[in-house]
Amino acid sequence: MRFFISISYNGKEFCGWQRQTNAPSVQQQLEHAFSVYLRETIEITGAGRTDTGVHAINYIAHFNSLNTHLIIEEHNLTVYKINAILPPSIVLNKIFPVNEQAHARFHAKSRTYQYYVHSAKDPFSSNFSYFYPYELNLTAMNRAAQLIVGQKDFTSMAKLHSQTKTNICTVTDAVWEHGSPLPTHLSNSLVFTITANRFLRNMVRAVVGTLLEVGRGRKEPEWVIDVLEKKERSAAGNSVPPHALFLTDIQYPSNITELTITNLP
To answer: Is residue 249 flagged as an active site residue?
Structure first.
């Protein structure tokens, strides 16, 4: 049987989602926990990569198993037992069966990331928000953000020399708002939310760095158009640090339990 899982993780201790030979990854920790509990070799496929240090609140992955524990045992009990094996920085939220052909990566319709920024020094925000000590023009940043909405080539905002076949992504939402990931709710905290059908490596952090240049008044909002047209990484702003970036949502078709491979976009 095939199962989807929902997990949350603090990315500080990991090299990202994907398994690496020289550093701990989220995928590695999950495969170890499931393999130990189910007493079989489990391979887990994620919805996509997250970079080193990036966090996730609702990350989706899938795996196959015929173990009777997963078929007979209450899923809440399975979740409890696997969480006992996982390190504190990873939490299994949910597990549920899906169609044998449902795929966590290829069937995902959209992904949403959020990035947090604060402009006044604060001892409670530094672990999950980027301290950027400048006055920011929220209106200008949102004008610039709207210019990246739609189907665009994001070569200028992607990691160089990646192996992707295309750098075209369709952004459906990009907006800056007041908000904080912590209970401090600082008045000078901002959160950037972006949703797209796919993201390139380092793309969100490069987008945020570019929009902060606009918010600081160093560039006009329309500069973003020139950045995209140049298709050069050096044309955009610097990438912001990963510790303030969260993958917060992945959307799938409502009939995910019935999908087959022929439904792939």
So the answer is: no
Whether 19 and 51 share a structural domain: yes
Q: What is the pTM of this model?
A: 0.91
| Domain CATH for 92 | 3.30.70.580
**Which of 51, 122, 173, 226 does the annotation list as catalytic?**
51
pLDDT in tens, 119-132: 888 888 888 999 99
What is the chain written as a DSSP string?
Answer: -EEEEEEEE-GGGSS-SS--SSS--HHHHHHHHHHHHHTS----EESS---TT-EEEEEEEEEE---HHHHHS-HHHHHHHHHHHS-TTEEEEEEEEE-TT--TTTT--EEEEEEEEESS--TTTTTTSEE--S---HHHHHHHHHTT-EEEE-GGGS-TT---S--EEEEEEEEEEE--SSTT--TTEEEEEEEES---TTHHHHHHHHHHHHHTTSS-TTHHHHHHHHT-GGGSPPPPPGGGEEEEEEE--TTGGG--GGG--
- 164 and 72 in a common domain: no
